[in-house]
Design a protein that fits this description.
globular; 3 helices; alpha+beta; single chain; 2,3-Dihydroxybiphenyl 1,2-Dioxygenase, domain 1
Length: 135
């Protein structure tokens, strides 16, 4: 079952500008900047104590994030919910008829294990389940 909201991502065109603005808004400095070549993105994370805010900028025209940005513009991208066992939750959801984009968890930053839920099954909201790496 879901434990809490884990992070919210926002897609932006200019990561440096957005990170500076969000730093001012939240009153905190970013904690980490990563480039995920395989996803065609660069991101900046803000740790707000009980939730991460993540700014994502596509780095290639082929990135799915670029397609999302082209279609929807800047702003809310997705929400992720923390679970204790992402594989068990994926199995439970499938048993309930919920479709998953990736049945096998993929790795995110800090070893996070992620499963994406088909947007059509969450009323058009891009939703992820996430398990943090405890190692």
């Amino acid at each position: 079952m879901v434990e809490r909201a884990h992070h919210i991502d926002f897609v932006v065109r200019d990561l440096d500008r957005a990170a500076a603005r969000f730093s001012t808004v939240f009153g905190v400095e970013p904690r980490g900047r990563e480039k995920l070549e395989d996803r065609g993105i660069e991101l900046v994370r803000f740790d707000l104590g009980n939730i991460w805010i993540i700014l994502v900028q596509p780095t290639t025209d082929e990135s799915p994030v670029q397609a999302f940005l082209d279609e929807h513009g800047e702003g809310f991208f997705h929400i992720a919910f923390k679970v204790g066992d992402v594989e068990a939750e994926a199995e439970r959801l499938e048993a309930e008829g919920i479709r998953l984009v990736n049945r096998k968890p993929r790795r995110g930053v800090e070893g996070w294990k992620l499963v994406d839920i088909e947007m059509e099954d969450t009323f058009g909201i891009y939703t992820q389940l996430i398990e943090e790496d405890d190692s």
